[in-house]
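All the exercises in this workshop are built on plain-text protein records. A record pairs a protein's sequence with a compact description of its fold. Read left to right, the backbone structure tokens trace the chain's path through space. Once this layout is familiar, the rest of the handout is easier to follow. Here is such a record, shown just as it appears in the course material:
>
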Amino acid sequence: MNKKSKRKSYSITLPVNLVNRLLFLKRLKKGNVDMGKEATGFFYKLVDNLEKSNGINRDSWKEHKKCPRCDSYLIIKKGKRGEFYGCYNYPNCKWTESIYNNKKEED
């Protein structure tokens, strides 16, 4: 029995002009452009930049928790006193939790 690895895939919608440009590049290279490989590097950089610009720790996704107030996600953030869990929905929801002793705090 062949076991296929279960990988989640995601789809994104790209503007038509961008898709046409990518297809044109692929045709110029006579089909030898691996778009998956090319796109993977781009998306890793994009996600890194999004995490940095939003003050999100790179490993937040590993320990995701739900916000008890708004049901959004709690993410690891860095503050003056170190790392803490903060609501992704900030500033609409200001729920925070300590990472170290699970003591809940509200601002």
About this structure: Residues 94 and 107 are 6 Å apart (CA to CA). The radius of gyration is 20 Å. The longest strand covers residues 73-79. The chain has a mean pLDDT of 78.
